[in-house]
Amino acid sequence: MREWLLVLLGIVQGVAEWLPVSSSGIVMLILVLLEISPQVAYDVALYLHLGTAVAGFVYYRKIFYRSVVDLVRADFTNIYLKFLLVTTALSIIVALPTYIVFRGVVSRLEGSVLMLFIGLLLLVVAILLRVSGKSTTRRVEDIEFRDMILYSLAQGLSVLPGVSRSGITLAVMLILGFSSEDSLTVSFLTAPIVSLLTAPLMYREFEPVYVAPLIVSTVVGIVTIGMMLRLARVFETDIFTIIVALMILSASIVLTLSSL
Q1: Are the C-beta atoms of residues 177 and 190 closer than 8 Å to each other?
Q2: Residue 178 has what DSSP assignment?
Q3: I need a surface site. Which of 121, 151, 176, 221 has the fewest CB within 10 A?
Q4: In this structure, how many other beta carbons lie within 10 angstroms of the beta carbon of residue 45?
Q5: Which residues share a beta bridge with 178?
Q6: Rounded CA gap, 64 and 163, in Å?
Q7: Phi, psi of 138 (to 5 degrees)
């Protein structure tokens, strides 16, 4: 595979990973359209996630550093540490049986249809927020255990083909009434953790040709995280929720049509 194509895909991954769309689905769709085998396309998509994982760790380095220090000290008053530990553990509990039972049953088409439903549900919630005039005031500090459970259920389901992890987790946080910025933050924080957990799936020998695209996806990812957070600060939560819903719907329609 040509290096310029991998660099281009690194840019796509760096942007798509932090949008409420399936970055793996988009990368694989591009490669399959270029007549690359699905297995190779899947491996490339997994490799590129390493770049955006680094981007997440770099952008939120202060939160991760503080969480590691508090973990060593067994200080679990840190809400970010508590959230990462609980949602990671519960997501694994949900994801493993879901992967084993449904991976061979649920096609990418059905996963994309599920995301269509989630996008429509989120759009309804956003419109209701707009019409009622209610403002969203829940912040990270207000996260309760039941929120973590619902978040973990959503994240666990993202192992299904066609389901966007960022899309489904962001949708859950917005539906639960959290602010746009905090919804993005917790969704972005768990992304690099998930990427590390999927690292063992990358059984193919690493090749030097992947170095440049990984660096590109890291740099583009850092920029995209900042842009998404600024977008969340500019728009009110209901408007931002509508934007997210439309993104999910658009990407799901594209992936659904490509699966037909």
Answers
A1: no
A2: B
A3: 121
A4: 21
A5: 138
A6: 26
A7: -70, 135
| Residue in 254, 257, 199 with CA at minimum distance from that of residue 22 | 254
Q: Which of 41, 49, 53, 16 is nearest to 250 (CA)?
A: 16
Which amino acid, residue 101? V
Q: Which residue shows structure tokens 């719907």?
A: 249
Q: What is the pLDDT of residue 46?
A: 80
Is 22:224 a contact under the CB 8 Å cutoff? no
**CA 103, CA 101: separation in Å to the nearest integer?**
6
Residue 212 CA to residue 86 CA, distance in Å, equals 35
0.85 exceeded by pTM: no
Q: Is the pLDDT of residue 182 over 90?
A: yes
- Every domain of the chain and the residues it spans: 3-259
Taking a C-beta distance cutoff of 8 angstroms, is the pair 114, 160 a contact? yes
Q: Higher pLDDT residue, 253 or 198? A: 253
* DSSP class of 139: -
Percent of the chain with pLDDT over 90: 41
